[in-house]
């Protein structure tokens, strides 16, 4: 697997009739705004945006620490939706979207994780839950 370049967004749009269309947009032509996504000269309102993603990498040494986990349930256009589990430090609630860093692969040669940055508009978020990791309490020596 090669290291992702991160210079393209994949935008998933809801089309009439319940279909979903995926388009690729260069980062220099992409902007998230209060009313929707600006894709070059075209504006797509938030109610049509299912999600948008971008491939990124993250160093391995920081990624191996333990963190709380998040469970996120999103409307992906299917009857049951999609449930995503991720570490708490890879979850951010933004003004227009819920931003998630989802692990895809470990690239050992480069010493990095391959991640997909997923942005889900709030209208497509069904629920999310913070699930704390149980703490390990050392036993008393006496």
Helix amount, in percent? under 10%
Flag low-confidence runs: none
**Strand order, largest beta sheet:** 2-1-6-11-10-9
Arithmetic mean of pLDDT = 84
Termini, distance in Å?
Answer: 52 Å
Which characteristics define this entry?
3-stranded antiparallel β-sheet, 12 strands, mainly beta, 6-stranded antiparallel β-sheet, 142 residues, globular, single chain
Summarize the model shown:
This protein is mainly beta. 3% of the residues lie in helices and 56% in strands. It has one domain (8-131).
Describe the structure.
The chain is an all-beta fold. It has one domain (8-131). 3% of the residues lie in helices and 56% in strands. It contains one helix and twelve strands, in the order ββββββαββββββ. It has a six-stranded antiparallel β-sheet with strand order 2-1-6-11-10-9. Strands 3-4-5 form a three-stranded antiparallel β-sheet, with no helix packed on it. β3 and β4 form a beta hairpin. The longest helix is centred in the middle third of the chain and has 4 residues, at 60-63. The radius of gyration is 18 Å and the shape is globular. The chain starts with 7 loop residues before the first strand and ends in an 11-residue tail after the last strand.
